[in-house]
Write a structure and sequence with these properties.
The protein folds into three domains: 33 residues, no CATH class; 70 residues, no CATH class; 82 residues, no CATH class. The relative contact order is 0.11. It is of the alpha/beta class. The protein is 33% helix and 15% strand. The chain is built from seven helices and six strands. The protein has a four-stranded mixed beta sheet with strand order 1-4-3-2, with no helix packed on it. It has a two-stranded parallel sheet with strand order 5-6. The radius of gyration is 25 Å and the shape is extended. InterPro entries: Capsule_synth_CapA.
């Protein structure tokens, strides 16, 4: 009787080995991507300090101040201190460095709750249906007036969401004003009150 391993067994062994290597690689990538705020700030600096930008550069960079930490990291805050900046109605900072790089800052002045990690929460789907509208309307105290204030509706979950430094909300439905001729509707053609956007952002 032959003792040589069959081809099928060899194939299964190779597949199992590849799967194990893939799992180890995925874990390593996850650990690397979830490093500290300091590493996040350094990665940002590598992008901005890599090569000199021309005076008419259109490169846009996004940085959440929460990842910088309390102390300057490699001069990150100083780099953007003397730039021309404007703040839009949503509190988002738009600026241009002296060498022409345009950037956007989200969460200016916000700091992570821990000096060595950043927490993230992901919420969704943010879905306003015809079933939800009456409840949200009642939470606000006024019903039947055609206006919707979602702030009281979200008040119960707000403390839990604010425990995280970064918050991602998947807004599943579109928001088009009734003034543009579109009524609020549910399945299958969802259209949510645009007032929900401000409440979600708050």
């Amino acid at each position: 009787m032959s003792t040589r391993p069959r081809a099928g067994m060899n194939a299964r062994f190779v597949i199992a080995l590849v799967a194990i290597i893939a799992i180890i690689a995925a874990i390593a990538i996850g650990v690397f991507s979830c490093t500290s705020k300091t590493n996040a700030a350094q990665e940002f600096l590598e992008v901005t300090d890599g090569s000199p930008a021309s005076a008419n550069s259109s490169q846009t960079l996004v940085l959440n101040d929460a990842v910088r930490g309390e102390a300057p990291v490699n001069g990150a805050p100083e780099r953007f201190r003397d730039c021309e900046e404007t703040v839009d109605e949503n509190g988002i900072v738009h600026g241009t460095t002296p060498d022409g790089i345009r950037y956007t800052v989200l969460g200016r002045g916000e700091l992570a709750q821990s000096p060595d990690r950043v927490t993230l929460c992901a919420i969704g789907d943010q879905l306003v249906t015809e079933y939800v509208l009456p409840f949200a309307d009642a939470y606000a105290g006024k019903t039947g007036d055609g206006e919707y204030d979602f702030t009281p509706w979200y008040r119960e979950v707000k403390p839990f969401i604010q425990e995280h430094d970064l918050r991602f909300v998947n807004q599943e439905t579109v928001m088009v004003s009734e003034e543009k001729g579109y009524s609020y509707s549910g399945y299958p053609t969802f259209n949510s009150p645009e007032s929900a956007a401000a409440s979600v952002a708050d």
